[in-house]
Specification:
The complex is a heterodimer of chains A (159) and B (259). With 159 residues, chain A is mostly helical. Chain A is 86% helix and 0% strand. In chain A, α3 runs antiparallel to α4 and α3 packs parallel to α6. The longest helix of chain A is centred in the C-terminal third of the chain and has 51 residues. Chain B is elongated, with a radius of gyration of 22 Å. Classes of the chains: A mainly alpha (159), B mainly alpha (259). Chains A and B meet through α1, α4, α5 and α6 of A and α3, α5, α9 and α10 of B.
Chain lengths: 159, 259
């Protein structure tokens, strides 16, 4: 339990500081940090409980993406402003780095192993983001159509 | 007059796409934004192709004049503020709250603005970030303070280099080497801390995790050229960091250090 708290706090703090380095708009930093912390905690929870890393990547990224879309609608900012920082703790930059390090150190078996795992993780994350984005776009366009329709009806009513 | 207006709209649309790509946005978003600006400006059947290294635009005005354009892009780091501003300016234009002259002026000013973090603050931020990531990666308190020193030195060594015209490969190699040397010296002097955790957490500000994720995203959206190119760039920067770390660790081992 304590370790989950530590993971949450450290990833939230790390993301908060990293957001400054990415020049995030001020009002996006706090929600980002909380979202990132939650997503990373879910990631650790799923990977510890289900013992499936790709599943953990998928579910945690899904959570971050849905949260980003909601925050984007509320804050009237593009979703990537929230999405980019909130996946920072779990994005497998370390995996990519290790893959390359093993290549240089001629540990070819470890290179292939880490490389494949990293690729699968990235694929899981990308699918989660793409899926959420697709759904969000559908919802947005249907809402827009409905409001336009309502406005039109209102206009006719006034005439 | 009409022609001038149209070419201004085309230029502004490309500028908007360029700003998004330069500051780390997705390819489909750059194309979409440029397309919306074109459509709002009255360019008939606009076609836009955004690549990581440039953006191309063509379209017709009425039945005759063709608008063609090309802009070269040099990508820098992710800059969320500029992405957000570009998006909201373009939205204001498509809603009709802003003229194309205004939009062009604002985007040009945004592109020219250099809002960089002062070096001491950047170093402190980098140090604290790496310390937090060290804790996150199950490191102890010793790993955290050592990662903090590595992070500070990383920012101090790479930030001035990144501003100059030196290639990112060199910057990343230097960063990797500085981090590895610091971590190796600190762990061997104090006899505490885990070298692996310190190395991984303090190279995190340089690592192209987000860039790789965006590359995969681009490829999934059907922007295959962008996806490939971005993947190559990310691999190259990871390789150069690893090279910096690897060479330094090899020297460290050869003078008697323990991994």
């Amino acid at each position: 339990m304590i370790s989950y708290l530590i993971w949450f706090v450290s990833s939230a703090v790390g993301t908060c500081l990293f957001s400054f380095m990415m020049h995030a708009p001020r009002r996006a930093i706090l929600p980002n940090s909380i979202l990132a912390g939650t997503a990373y905690t879910v990631f650790m929870l799923v990977s510890n409980q289900l013992h499936s890393e790709p599943m953990a990547y998928f579910l945690a990224t899904m959570l971050a993406a849905v949260g980003s879309e909601l925050l984007a609608t509320l804050g009237k900012m593009p979703a990537m402003i929230f999405l980019f920082p909130s996946v920072i703790p779990m994005v497998p930059g370390i995996g990519i780095y290790r893959t390359m390090l093993y290549l240089i150190q001629k540990k070819y078996e470890a290179f292939l192993d880490t490389g494949t795992q990293t690729l699968i993780a990235l694929g899981a994350m990308a699918v989660a983001i793409a899926l959420t984005n697709e759904i969000a776009r559908r919802v947005h366009s249907s809402v827009r159509q409905r409001t336009q329709f309502a406005r039109k009806q209102e206009g006719e009513h006034h005439l | 007059m009409e022609d001038e207006q149209m070419s201004l709209i085309a230029d502004t649309a490309m500028l908007a796409g360029t700003l998004i790509l330069e500051n780390g946005g997705e390819t489909y978003r750059a194309e979409e934004t440029a397309l919306r600006v074109c459509e709002a400006g009255g360019i008939v059947s606009p076609e836009i192709l955004a690549l990581p290294t440039g953006i191309l635009l063509s379209g017709n005005q009425g039945m005759r004049t063709e608008q063609h354009g090309l802009m070269r892009i040099h990508q820098s780091a992710v800059h969320l503020y500029k992405l957000e501003r570009t998006n909201s300016y373009c939205r204001a234009y498509t809603r009709g709250d802003m003229t194309v002259e205004e939009l062009s002026e604002r985007l040009l000013a945004l592109r020219a603005s250099e809002k960089t973090i002062p070096l001491p603050l950047n170093a402190v931020l980098s140090g604290l970030t790496t310390a937090a990531f060290a804790i996150m990666l199950n490191g102890g308190i010793h790993d955290a303070w050592m990662a903090m020193i590595c992070g500070i030195l990383l920012a101090l060594s790479t930030a001035p280099l990144a501003k100059s015209t030196i290639s990112t490969v060199t910057v990343n190699m230097t960063g990797g080497a500085v981090v590895a040397a610091t971590a190796a010296v600190l762990t061997s002097l104090t006899g505490k801390g885990t070298l692996d955790i310190i190395l991984v957490s303090s190279t995190m500000p340089l690592l192209p995790g987000l860039a790789t994720l965006n590359a995969v995203r681009d490829a999934m959206c059907g922007d295959l050229v962008s996806g490939n190119a971005r993947l190559l760039r990310a691999m190259l920067s990871a390789l150069s960091i690893a090279a910096g770390v690897g060479v330094t660790l090899a020297i460290y081992v050869s003078v008697g250090g323990l991994l």
